[in-house]
Hints:
Largest sheet: none
CATH topology: Amino acid/polyamine transporter I
Low-confidence stretches: 1-32
Mean pLDDT: 82
Order of helices and strands: HHHHHHHHHHHHHHHHHHHH
CATH superfamily: Amino acid/polyamine transporter I
Strand content: under 5%
CATH architecture: Up-down Bundle
Helix content: 55-70%
Radius of gyration: 22 Å
Number of domains: 1
Number of helices: 20
Amino acid sequence: MNSPSHPSSRPDRATPATATPAPVDGSEDSHRGLARSLGHGQMAMIAMGSALGTGLFLGSGEAIALAGPAVIITFAVGSLIAATIALSMGEMASRHPVRGGFGTLAARYLSPFWGYLSRWLYWIVTVGVTGTELVACAAYLSYWVPGVPIWAGILMFAAVIIGINLASVGSFGTVEFALSSVKVIAVLVFIIVGVILVFVGLPSQPAPGLSLLTADGGFAPMGWAPVWVALSIVMFSFGGIELLSITAAEAKDPARSIRTAARTTVVRLAFFYVACIGIVLCLVPWQQAASTGEDVATSPFVMVFDRVGIPGGAHVTNLLVLIAALSAANANLYAGSRMLHSLASDGLAPRVVAWTTRNRVPVVGIACSSIGIVGAAGLAFSGVGGVFGYMMSLVVFSVLMVWALILITFIRFRRSGITGATFHVPGGIGTAVVGLVGLLAILATVTVRPSMQVAAMVGVPVVLIASLLYALVARHRIDQADIDEAFAEAESMR
């Protein structure tokens, strides 16, 4: 690997945010790096905002159809795998709150190639997911205002999240905290109401208890193999936990914030998903719950609200899914722009992408990610189902690969013997191995699920092409001095 000289010795290159960039407004003030403005509550909510998406509110019909009531076990296992990933990231990030998060850590503890690959793959994930969520936002808006074209809704909501991300990171954190708080409160209300309905009942409706979990074919009516297959669907409900690592570079107090965020995010997500799906299956026959789709009227939330007699249940749920989609889109645009900033700072993307504003916001990274997002939204809306389907298959493949690399990086991190992390993963390397086994189990569903076969068919060639580009171009551009500088800056914040 060629290691170019330090930025100060190369005045002819574009000045990235990791050096002392020329201000974008032409003033003489210098701006360096990203701003550290996020509190621990904001960090946890940003990860929640991405992971607590529309799937929870609209139901998990496909997974329920596969496994029946036993899908509760699938969600519990998925929560365990997600916990191994989040906690592993948290321990590493508490020691190295570095820009680029897990990708920069992979570059150090595995090799520069894996840092390059994981960051570019994750950028693809953020673009695909955000584009999809923007289309969802527009569709939910049309529920109330059917006269508004979907494309107009996409552009409107894109402008909203771009505007939020162009503000200071502190303002972004405040908005995301508010959006995620609405979702959390709604879920808590749903759980409380659901528990009352399940175990106490109403004057006109006796409590069903747990009887529906074993009715109509038993707890696992399809057998136990589908419980495993459903894991390949359920696991992606937890997509977004990676943001814990990315936000570390902008935390006010990384040591405390990361420790708190990692623990609370895992516990909340596990509790919310398992409790909500359990309540739904206790109140609604699983065949009926399995028929829920993207239509708000069929949402389990609407079913429960209607049963309690809350008027306008569909409108309340539509508002929740709109907020959920907007929050997820907002968080993923943030993540994508920070990944591009990190890649550019290390010489793996055009240097101009690393420029920041006076508020230390990577404006070029946001612009580049936004172009990709609008393109993805256009594919989703245009009806080019084949192209969009392949793109989302690549997202699935990329998420699995990024998660696996996080766990492998953690194993190398632990074996290096480095100390100083503010909290430690219970079980250490053994916990990471459990997570890897779980990811391999998900990958193994490629033998029975066509969608996973498509993911492999699309993902493997993309990785091979990315590897070729790295060998021919990227490895000659890696700036090891900038990577070392990023770790030094992170060290100074501990």
